[in-house]
Amino acid sequence: MDFELSEEQRLLQESVGRLLSDRYGFEQRTAYMKEPGGFSRALWKQYADLGILALPFAEEDGGIGGGPVDIMIVMEAMGRALVLEPYLATVVLAGGVLRHAGSKVLRAGLIPKIADGSLVLALAHSERQSRYDLADVATSAKKDGAGYVLDGAKGIVLHGDSADKLIVSARVSGKQRERDGIGLFLVDAKAKGVSIRGYQTIDGLRAAEVTLAGVKIGAEDVIGDPGKASPVIERVVDEAMAALSAEAVGAMTVMHEVTTDYLKTRKQFGVPIGNFQVLQHAAVDMLMATEQARSMAMLAAMMAAEPNAVERHKSVAAAKVQIGRSGRFVGKTATQLHGGIGMTMEYKVGHYFKRAMAIDVSFGDADHHLATLAKMGGLLAA
Amino acid sequence: MDFELSEEQRLLQESVGRLLSDRYGFEQRTAYMKEPGGFSRALWKQYADLGILALPFAEEDGGIGGGPVDIMIVMEAMGRALVLEPYLATVVLAGGVLRHAGSKVLRAGLIPKIADGSLVLALAHSERQSRYDLADVATSAKKDGAGYVLDGAKGIVLHGDSADKLIVSARVSGKQRERDGIGLFLVDAKAKGVSIRGYQTIDGLRAAEVTLAGVKIGAEDVIGDPGKASPVIERVVDEAMAALSAEAVGAMTVMHEVTTDYLKTRKQFGVPIGNFQVLQHAAVDMLMATEQARSMAMLAAMMAAEPNAVERHKSVAAAKVQIGRSGRFVGKTATQLHGGIGMTMEYKVGHYFKRAMAIDVSFGDADHHLATLAKMGGLLAA
Amino acid sequence: MDLRFNDEETAFRDEVRSFFKKSLPENIRRKMVEGKKIGKEDIVTWQRILNKKGWAVSHWATEWGGTGWSPVKQYIFLDEMQQAPAPSPLQFGVYMVGPVIIAFGNEAQKKKFLPRIANIDDWWCQGFSEPGSGSDLASLKTTAKRAGDHYVVNGQKTWTTLAQYADWIFCLVRTNPDSKKQEGISFLLIDMKTPGITVRPIQTIDGSREVNEVFFDDVKVPLENLVGEENKGWDYAKFLLGNERFGIARVGLSKERIRRLKELASIERVGDKPMIDDERFRTKIAAVEVELKALEMTQLRVVAAAKNGNSNKPDPASSILKIKGSEIQQTISELLFEVVGPYGLPYQPEQIEDDRVNEPPIGPDYAAPLAPTFFNWRKISIYGGSNEIQKNIIAKAILGL
Amino acid sequence: MDLRFNDEETAFRDEVRSFFKKSLPENIRRKMVEGKKIGKEDIVTWQRILNKKGWAVSHWATEWGGTGWSPVKQYIFLDEMQQAPAPSPLQFGVYMVGPVIIAFGNEAQKKKFLPRIANIDDWWCQGFSEPGSGSDLASLKTTAKRAGDHYVVNGQKTWTTLAQYADWIFCLVRTNPDSKKQEGISFLLIDMKTPGITVRPIQTIDGSREVNEVFFDDVKVPLENLVGEENKGWDYAKFLLGNERFGIARVGLSKERIRRLKELASIERVGDKPMIDDERFRTKIAAVEVELKALEMTQLRVVAAAKNGNSNKPDPASSILKIKGSEIQQTISELLFEVVGPYGLPYQPEQIEDDRVNEPPIGPDYAAPLAPTFFNWRKISIYGGSNEIQKNIIAKAILGL
C-alpha cells in the first residue's frame, strides 16, 4: 500500500499546477470563456506541449501510457483552476472510447492529433430521455452497404460545439433501453445531416444538442463491434466519473481554502468572523467533506482500471455518491459562509459551487448512484 | 381558526399538570416502576377521580364526551411527566375500540369500570411478523357455535401484563395480510388458553407477549362485525398516534428545557457552556424541532376525528413522521449536550430520550409513515 | 381549539381566491408558475390591479388604505396570493417603508408618499446594507451631514434589490459619528434622481441582475426627508425588520412550488415511468411536504397569537418561521433542479428573461429557470439576517443563552 | 500510488485472519457478533491467547514485547481483529498506560508493570475525568500531597470504565495547586486495593454498568508510583490521548457491524419480503457503506503518512477519523435497532449479560442487544473529547481559526 506519487507524477503535478496557476487567474478565465468554443486554444496547445493530451494513450499509439492516477492528478489541478478546456470530452471520454475500442487504423489516425492539440473530440452518447441510463439509446444506426446511416438526436454533448469529430452511439438492434445492440461511430462534425446547437452550461463550460438526420458512416468509422458497445461505454463513463471526482476534489479544496481565508479576514462586530464557533465548525465540516471526497477520488482512480467491471463500477459509483454529496455540501456552505459576496459573479467561490453542482448531475447524481449501489448489494459482502 | 383552549380545557390542563407535578418526581416515578404492573395503582385511581379515564367516552356510556384535543392535553402532560400508567392502552386503544365498535351492552359493562379505574384493558393486535402492517393478522378466530375459538400469538401488547381484559384481533377469513376478514374479541386475561408473558420495555413501561390456544369466546364478547374490523383498528391506531404525538411533544419540551437549563448552569473552561455558540445553536435546533412537532401534534389532534379516513390518516401519518424525526433529533442532541451525565440512569434526560425512541417505533416509525404518505400522493394535491 | 378556518374565514378565502383567479393577468401567472423573470411592468400592473380593488396595502392603517382585516385574514390573503401564484406588491414600498412612514413619518410625508406607494407610482428600494456591514448592520458608515436645509450624504450601499428601477431609496445613514453605533443612525428618504447617486448592477451567480451597489457622492437630501427624529433611525429599522412575521415563511409560495414540482415530476420520465412514481423521489417530496405542513401550522399559531393580541412577547413559534421557511424553499428549489437531471445544465438566460424568444429552449421547455433559481435562492438563508444570525437571536431572546 | 495491499501485506493479512479464525474462542466470537456482554473473563482469555502468540502488545517497543510491524501491518492487525470480531486487548493497559510507562516510566516501573500488562495479570483502569471536568480535563481537582515517602490522594474520578474489575488505576492528580492548571498535574499509578478507595457503579441508560465513580479518601500512594516527573503529567496525558490514531475510527468494527446488519435484514421480513429487499432500507445501508469506505480510505492515508514518517505535523485526514468514525458507528447502531422495528422495545438485560439464560428471548433471538447498544453508543461522540471539542481542535490546529 502506497499513497505516494512517483517522481514522474510529482513532476506532472508540479508542471500542470504551475501552468494553471500562471494562466488561470479569475480574469483570464473570464476572457477564455469569451473565445470561440468557450475555452483557450492557446492553453490547449500548451497542454499538448506538456504532454497531458497524450497522457492516457498507449505509447505505441503516440501516447504517454499514463494511468488513472495521472489523470487524477491532472483533473484535480483542473478542478482547482476551474478549467474550461475540453479535456474530459476529448481525452477522457472520446479518447477512452478510442483506447478501449478503436481500431489500430483509427487510433493511428486520431490519437497523434489529440496529442498535439489539433483535434478536439466529443462523445455524443446521452439523449433527451436517457437521463442517467447508459443503455437508453434511441438513435438508430441502420446498415447501409459496408457502413451505416444514423438518425436521431443526442443531448448535452460536452463540448459538442467545438469538436471536430464526434463519437456517436446508436442502436443497431434491440429496444430502446436494452444493453445489447448499441454501436459507436466516428462522425465528422461537418458531415451532411449533422446539426449542432452549442450553448453554455451553468458552470460556464459548453455543451451541444446534436441532431443526426441520415448521416452516412463509412465502414472505417465504425468503432469496435457494432452492437457490443455497452461495456466500452460503461468503462469509459466509469473512467470519466473517476476523473470528475478528482476535478470535484480540486474545486472543493479551493472552496474550502477561500472560505477559511474569508473567515480570517472578514470582520463583523469588530472581530474576524472566524472567531465565531458556529462558523469554525462549519469550516471543519467542509474540511471533513472535502477529505472524505478526496479519499474516494483516490479509490475511484485506483479502481478505474480494475478488470472486474462490477467491482470497478461499484467503487466508482460509491465515489460519485461521496463526491456529489460532499460537493453540494461544500458549495452550499461556502456560499452561506460568504454571505452575499459568495453569490456574485465577480467572486470566485460561486463559480466553483456551480461546477460542483454540474459535476454531480453529470453521469448520474449522488442519489442515482446510491440506488445503483444499493441494488448491487452495497460495497461489503454480506 | 382558533388555537385557544376552552375554559374547561384550561382547567383540565391545570389539574392534570398539577397532579403530575406533585406526584411524578423522578424518585417517585422510579418507585412506581417497581410496583406490580410497573405503574402506580394509586395514581390510576386519581386519574379516575380527575375524570381523565372517562374523558373520551360518550356521556351516555358513562364518559365525559371529550374530544381529541382533550386527549392531547392529557397526553402532553403525561409526556412531560413520563407517565407509566396504561392510559394509552386502556383509554385510547382499547377504549377507542369500544367507542367505535363496542355494542351497547359491552359499553355499558366496561366503560364505567374504565372510568372509575377498576378496569385495565389492552389491545392485543400486532403480531411478531406484522411489524407496522395493521392488516397482517395470522391469529385465527374459528366459528364455534354462537362464538369463536381463538388461536395464535400477539406481540408487544402494551400493558398486556396488567390488563384485566384484552381486546384481541383475529382473522375470521382471508389471507394473512388481507385487510378484510379481521374481527375483534374481548378476552378475559385469565381465560383458559390465554398465557401472558409480561416484560419491561426500553422506556420503563410494560408490554407482553400473549399466546392464545383454543380460547373460547362467547357471542357477547364479539366486538362489532367480525371480519370488518380493519376500519376500526385503523381509526383507533390513528387516534393513538395522535395521542402519542402529544405525549412526544411533552417529552421533547422537557428535554429542551432541561438541556437549556444545563447549558446555563454547567461550567467548563470557566464559563457556562451555554456561552459556546455551537451549543446555543444546537439548543435552537432542538427548539425548532420541538415546535414543529408541537404544530403537527395539534394537526393530528384536530384531524383524529376527521370523518374522511384518507385525509385523517394522511395528517396523522405526517404528524408521526415529524414526531419521530423531531423526537430522535431532540433526544440525541439533549444527550450529546449533556455529555456523560445525560447517559446515566440517575439523570432524567436519558429516560425521556428512550421514551421518544419508543414512541417512534410504536405503530410505525417516521420512515414507515413517510413511505405511506408518499404512496398516498403526499399532502398537497398535485 | 379548532385549527380549521371558520365559515367567515372560508368565505373570505374563497373570495380572495376567486379574485386572484379572475384578476391576475394570465401572462404574469404563467411566468410565476414557470419561474421566469417578473419585470417591473409585471409588478406595477399587478399592484395597480390590487390597489384598484383596495387590497394593495391591506395591512396598513385603514385611514391610509388598509382593509382592517384580522390577522387570520391577512394571512389568508398572503397565502392565497402566493399560491395563485401572484407577485407580491413591491415589498420595499408596501411592507417596508410604508409602515415606517405611517408609524413615524410626519403628516406631510404621509400625504406625499403613501398614496404613491400604494399605487406604485414610486418605485422604492432599500438602502440598509453596506459592503462592510453584513450581519452587523449597525456598523454602517454612510454619513449624512447637515448643511443648512439639507443633509449631504456620502457612502455606499449594497445588495440593493431592484435599485435599477427605483425612484426613491430609504436609507440608514450615520448622522452622529460620535455616539455608540446604534445611536447615531437616521432614516432618510432619498430621491434617486438626485445628482451624485450612481447605481452599479451586481450580477449574481444565477446570471440575474436583481441587486446593485448604490454610491452616494455629496448627495443633497432636504431635511424634510428625515423620517421621525434624527439619530433614532435604528429604532425605525428594527420596527421595519420586525414587521416580517406573516410573509417571511412563504408557506403559500412553497405550496405552489411543490405543486409545480409534482407536475414536472409527472411529466419527466425515468426509464419507462414518470419520475413521480420513483419511490425515492416521491419520498423526498413527501418529506418536504411534512416539513411545510408543520411550518404552516406553526405559522397559523403565530397568526392566532397575533389575533389574540399576544404579539408583544417573543413567541418561540415565530422565531422559527424564517429559518424553516428558508430551508424548505431551498430544498424545494433543489428538488426542482433534480427533476430535470442533466437538463438543468444548459444555461439559457434568454429563456428566463423573456419567454417570447424566438429560439426554442434546450431540452424540456420548463428546464431553463430551475438551476438558476436553485442558485439564486441560496440568498434566502442569507438576506435579512442570515440563518446563523437568526439562531443567535433566538438563543438570546428566547432561550436566554 | 497503489492503494491496494502489496503481496507482503496481503500475506500478512491472511496470516492474521487465519490466526483469528483458528484461535478466537467461538463463544467469545459469538457474543461479539450478537452484541452481548463481553466479561472480564472473555477479555483475559483472549488477551492471553494473543500474548502467547506475541501479539497482545504488537505496537510496543520490541524490547518490551512489540512486534516491530510497520504502521500498515499494525493497521491490518487491528482491522482484522475488529472484523473477526474479537475483543480488543484491554485498552487501558495495552494502549494507554503501557505506552506511557514505556516512554516516561523508570526501569523499575517498566519491569514491574509491562509484562503484567501484556499478559493482563493486572486489570487497569483510567482515572482522568472528574465530575467537574468534562471537556475541560485540565481543570481536575483530585489532589496528591507529598507526605514522606508517599502521596496522599483525595478526590473523585468518574466515568471510570470497568473499574469494578481493576487492580490498578492510572490517575491524573494535582500536585501543585498554585501553578497554571495544566502545569501542576502529575501522573500516578495507584493500587486499587489501597485503603480509602471506593468504587461506585454508574448505570447507563442502556442498563449496563460499565462505568464507575472512584472516590479517593486519604489514599496513600508510594512516591515510586509517580510516572516521570512531578507536575509533568499533562504532557504524558497528551501523549496518551495522541496515541489513538489508528484504532479510533473503528473501521473494522463498523465493517463487521454492517455485515451483521445485512445478515439481520435478510432474516427480518417486511410483509412478504426480507427487509434487505426494501429499497429504502437498502439505500440507507448503502449510504453508510459509502461513508465507511471513504473513512477507510482516509484511515489508510493516515497510516501511509505514518509509514512515511510524516506523523508529526497535523494531518487534516487524521483529524476527521474520530468524528466520522463515531457518526458512522452511531448510524449503524441506529439501523440495527431499526431492523427489528417494534421488537427493539422489549428490555431484556439478562439476554445481554449472559447468553445462557433459561428463558427464551422475547421476539427474535437477535433483538435484545440492539436498542441498548444504540443508546450505549451515544457515548462514542462524547467520550475522549466530544465531537464538538474535536471540531474546536481542528478549527484551531488545522484551519488556524
Verbal overview:
- The complex is a heterotetramer, with 2 copies of chain A (382 residues) and 2 copies of chain C (401 residues).
- Chain A is α+β, with helices and mostly antiparallel strands and 382 residues long.
- Chain A has helices spanning 7-23, 26-33, 41-50, 68-81, 87-101, 104-115, 230-265, 277-303, 309-338, 349-361, 366-375; strands spanning 121-124, 140-144, 147-158, 165-171, 182-188, 194-200, 206-217, 222-227, 267-268, 271-272.
- The two termini of chain A are 25 Å apart.
- By secondary structure, chain C is α+β, with helices and mostly antiparallel strands.
- Chain C has 3 domains: 7-89, Acyl-CoA dehydrogenase/oxidase, N-terminal domain (Butyryl-Coa Dehydrogenase, subunit A, domain 1, Orthogonal Bundle), CATH 1.10.540; 124-231, Beta Barrel (Butyryl-CoA Dehydrogenase, subunit A, domain 2), CATH 2.40.110; 248-397, Up-down Bundle (Butyryl-CoA Dehydrogenase, subunit A, domain 3).
- Chain C has a 4-stranded mixed β-sheet. A 4-stranded antiparallel β-sheet of chain C has the order 2-3-7-6, with no helix packed on it. Chain C has a two-stranded antiparallel sheet with strand order 9-10.
- In chain C, helix 4 runs parallel beside helix 8.
- The longest helix of chain C is centred in the last third of the chain and has 29 residues, at 279-307.
- The model of chain C has no long low-confidence stretch (mean pLDDT 94).
- Chains B and C meet through helix 7, helix 8, helix 9 and helix 11 of B and helix 8, helix 9, helix 10 and helix 13 of C.
